[in-house]
Amino acid sequence: MTALHYRFVSETDLDSFASAAPWSGSLGTFSCALSDGVLTAIPAVEFRDRDAAKRALEPHLRAWEQGAFLSPSAYRIRFEYDRSDVEEVDPQPGSMTIFVETIGVTATAFAPTIRRGNAEYPSVDPLFVRSPLTDLLIERLRRTRDGGETWPAFAYFVLTRIEAEFGGEKGAIAALAVSRNVLEGIGTICAKGDPDIGRKAGRTPETITSSERAWLEAVVARLIRRVGEHAGGRPLQQITMADFPPLQ
Fold it and tell me: Cα 197 from chain centroid?
C-alpha cells in the first residue's frame, strides 16, 4: 500500500478553493499533502490492503470535515475516496507489482457566482476527535443552519445532551472545562418565551435579541468542538464568557 488519494470537495458554491495554497501535514500514521483539490496520503506503516488503510485514515478525514464545519467560517467540505496505489504484499522474488486504480471523475455543476474565495484550505485541528456524540450534534447543527430547527431549540438540546452525557451540569462543567456562566446563559436565553423562535411559550412574550441569537450560535458550535476535544483526551483550557460576543 503506497498511497491513498481523495478528492477535496466543497459542498457549497459559496466557497471556492481553486486558489488555495498547498497544505501538508500528518493525519495519524499518514503523511499527507493537499493540492489542487487532491489529497494524497502516504502511510508510514504497512497495511495489508487498501481497505485497512482507508479504515485507518478516514476517521481523521471525518474529523477534519467536522472541525471545518464548526469553525467560524462554517465550511462544508468532504473528502471523497478516489483511488489508491497498492503494492502486492507478497511479490515474487526480485519483482514488484503496482496496482493503480482507474481514476473516477465526477462532473459537478456549480452556480456561476462564487461568493467566497479561500486562499487556504480549512485547517486541521489536532485536538479534535470525532465521536458518536459529535456526529449527533453536528447533524443537528447542520439541520439548524439550514433552517430546519430554531437556534433556541437546538441550543437547549445541546445543553441537555451534554449534561446527560457527562453527569449533569457539574459533570459537564468539570469534563468539558466550561464556565457555569456559559451553560446558565444558554438556559436563560432558551427559557425566553419568544413568540417567533422561542423553545417554549411564556406567559409574557419576551423577544430573543439578535445578539442573543448570535451568542447561542457561537456557544453551541464551541461546545460541540469541545466535545471532540474532550474525546481527544488532552488537557483543556477553560471556556468562559469572555470567549464569545458580548450579550446586549
Answer: 26
pLDDT average per 10 residues of sequence, the chain (248 residues)? 92 92 96 97 92 96 97 95 73 41 43 74 94 96 94 94 97 97 94 74 76 94 97 95 88
User: What gap in Å lies between CA 161 and CA 83, rounded to an integer?
Assistant: 39
Q: What is the DSSP string of 148-181?
A: SS-HHHHHHHHHHHHHHHHTHHHHHHHHHTB-HH
Give the residue numbers spanning the domain of 157.
Answer: 132-243
Is 172 within the bounds of a domain? Answer: yes
The answer as to whether 224 is a domain residue is yes
Any domain includes 217: yes
Distance between CA 76 and CA 13 in Å, rounded?
A: 10
Of 157, 131, 123, 129, give the one whose Cα is nearest residue 143. 157
Exposure string for 56-79, b = 16+ CB within 10 A, e = fewer: bbbebbbbbbbbbbbeeebbbbbb
Q: How far apart (Å, rounded) are the C-alpha atoms in residues 248 and 245?
A: 9
| Separation of alpha carbons 231 and 224, rounded Å | 11
C-alpha cell, 145: 443552519
| Among 122, 17, 112, 126, CA closest to 70 | 122
Number of domains in the chain: 2
The helix or strand, by DSSP H or E, that contains position 72, with its residue range, turns out to be: none
**Pairing of β 116-117 and β 15-16:** parallel
Query: What are 13's three cell numbers?
Result: 458554491
Do residue 99 and residue 65 come from a single domain?
A: yes
pTM: 0.83
The answer to whether residue 64 sits within a structural domain is: yes
**Assigned C-alpha cell, 66:** 467536522
